[in-house]
Hints:
The complex is a heterodimer of chains A (512) and B (331). Chain A has 512 residues and is of the alpha/beta class. Chain A folds into two domains: 3-237, Rossmann fold; 255-507, Rossmann fold. In chain A, helix 14 (404-416) packs parallel to helix 15 (434-449). Chain A is globular. Chain A starts with a strand and ends with a helix. Chain B has 331 residues and is mainly α. Chain B has helices at residues 2-7, 10-35, 43-61, 64-88, 93-116, 143-148, 153-171, 173-183, 185-190, 195-221, 233-244, 248-269, 275-293, 300-313, 315-329, and strands spanning 121-122, 225-226. In chain B, strands 1-2 form a two-stranded antiparallel sheet. Chain B is globular. The termini of chain B are far apart. Mean pLDDT of chain B is 85; it is low at 315-331. The interface between A and B is medium-sized, with 28 and 26 residues.
Amino acid sequence: MSLAIELKSITKRFGSFVANEDVNLAVESGKIHAIIGENGAGKTTLMNVLFGLLQPDEGEIWIDGEKKSLPNPAAAIAAGIGMVHQHFKLVPSLTVAENVFLGMEIRKGGLIDHAAQIKKTAELSKQFGLQVDPNERVGLLSVGIEQRIEILKVLARGARIIILDEPTAVLTPQESRELFQTLRGFVAQGMTVIFISHHLEEVMEVSDNVSVLRLGKNVASRPTAELTKSDLVQLMVGRLVSFDRLPRTPTAGKTMLEVEDLWCRDDRQLQALRGVSFGVRAGEIVGIAGVAGNGQTELAEVLSGLRPSSHGAIRLDGRAITGLTARDIRAAGVGHVPGDRLVRGVDRNASIAQNILMGRQDKSPWSKHGIIDRGYLQEQTQTLIKRFDIRAQGPQSTAKSLSGGNIQKIVLAREFTGGGNCLLIDQPTRGVDIGAQEQIHGEIMRQRDAGKAILVISVQLDELIRLADRILVMFGGTIMGEISGDRVDEEEIGMLMAGVIPEPRSNTVGAA
Amino acid sequence: MEVLERLLNVTLVIATIRTTAPILLVALGGSFTTKAGIFNIGLEGQMLVGAFFAVIGTIATGSPWLGVLCGIAAALTLALIFALLVVSFKANEVVVGLALNILAGGLTVSLMKAIFGTRGSIFGHGLVGLPALKLPNVKDLGWFGQMISGYTPLVYAAFILVPVLILFYNRTRLGLYIRVVGEKPEAAEALGISITRIRYVSSLLCGLLAGLAGAHLALGYTTMFTENMSSGRGFMAVAILIFSNGDPLKILLGCLLFGFSDALSLRLQTLGISSYLVLAVPYLVALIALFALSYRSRPRVIQETLASMGRALSVKSNTVKPAAATDASKP
């Protein structure tokens, strides 16, 4: 058993903050090695050190049994390491082949030899089972295929050790499975794969070995088969966390939010919603599942008044709110937690108190006779900071000085105390670590039990399974199907997410 | 019919080619900066100093070719200052471009006063233009031969540059990197392509062609220098660049449109139409065409207003569509 990579006592500091502390990591060659940990645990820093993007303050890097120094990514590539970043860096107007060979063009007589690049790309694509059309323009392709191109880029540079940073975050379950098959193909050809993730199921499914980072330290490195999912969570968080469906009593009352045959267009004037109908009852959480980009964002925007619908009706407690402005919809009692908290959730440069105030600065008791009651604001902000466990120096800290999870809590604190009876929550815990996720989920459940009608849109299936009483799956702007939250079949949801209506399970019915 | 015949004939084509060439040269120069993601409004000024120093160089050396080199050197200097401020010091490109345009206008006027003691225009002083090229054996080609022969060399250069630039962007590494830097800088950065270097190179290539355009204006198109002789061509080029997104073929079409209406307006003057109105024709035609062609990138307000008007008119078809589509999506 040889080691592809051995990191010895790597320490990396940023000022007084220690991102990696005395990390030892041994990656066997020909294996899939998963690295998991919460946000800020130091996974990305460690991989950037390994890829030559950052220089360690202490420690050694050994590759294939040789000690190496990696002053820049070029040195890492020369040592056979390739990295597929979380955010793709492809040029939309270029073809697949041009993107694969960008920076290492094949040239003949000074001119780029497109035919040779296309041929080589096709060969690589065939050899590693990554199906792409080398002639296609990248701007026209789906995210799953873009990822294949990023992997091909790495392979074309001769990588034998491939690092993937959260590769499944943007994929459907089916696409993820295809990716895993590809990765298994890589190790079968003797290559080594390092896989960063915080999706525990995936880690359990695909990896041979797993290392857990917590607060910059490697707390465990073991064969995956020796661990259970709850072991991993405990190692990651440092305490016990439940991932099961949250307990609940059926409280659903009358229908609060009603959507009927809703249509709208996206920014490019393409149909984004094609006749969506559903209802959300008081005391009920309805989850919207789907791969990002299938109309969920537009649905949230239409419901909150940020995007015009072209057809259909929205009713809140029996009253039509279609076509009202965002302000009027808020006034009617709809709280909205937007999908991108930094764009629509908060003003990054404003303080926590100002962000809490936003949208109700003209209402009593927040202001009197047009003048903001600072004392009341201060007091309320203090209370909310405590209740939502927002980790900040005080009400006057700016939003941008906080971590993503804490910014999200500011948005929740504002929207959950708005006094409405309906909540739209788009991606409640995107980029938020497990500890904060638990708190946010608890708060959403409290809102449910208080009788609010709640619509939760999330690309994380496990989150919807935890929270939702019913799950609606969206694909191509329509609702493909509905699944009760207590009898979730992931296979079935996956099919619906990919736009396939699953065959009925009970074949005997047809025979009878 | 008679009027049309007087307007549309082979001499109009020849006039179009002549008037297209200067703006084509400067717009092709701007193509480099546009592709590299720089909004270069300083084309006008680079063209103007190119024209002025081409004239100075020719008078000083007696050779129009050395004059062309002087013009290019002057435009390159201005382009280098532009790149220094915009790329290295991250100054606002519109402000810098405008400032350099104003500088170019003032500089040429005061130098003219200082050197020649006059204002207005420079001619004489031993100023010679570039020789016209008579292509061999074109007599046999009849009117076509007449159409393609007899221009000054930079007219040919302008039109030949179009396919050269197409090849440059599609088949050379530098051309590819310029496109990548403009379209997706983070991709360039990740691959170790220096964004700064590519933007400098693009700015200087732009200065080269803008200088050539200016030299052509002073030594080919005319044989003189007059105050502000670029007369808005640099700005028209900017407009053409916005709609063409820097693609050489679209630039050629835009410039031909401008050149054609320019030539036509000269012709219309002979029909006794007010020259003030006529002089506005090329700008008007070009602007309307540009607006129509770049409709897709117009501010969303205009688009959405038009779109919602359209929607109001097509309510009926909209109510039919949903039913059909939902039927289709059901198993």
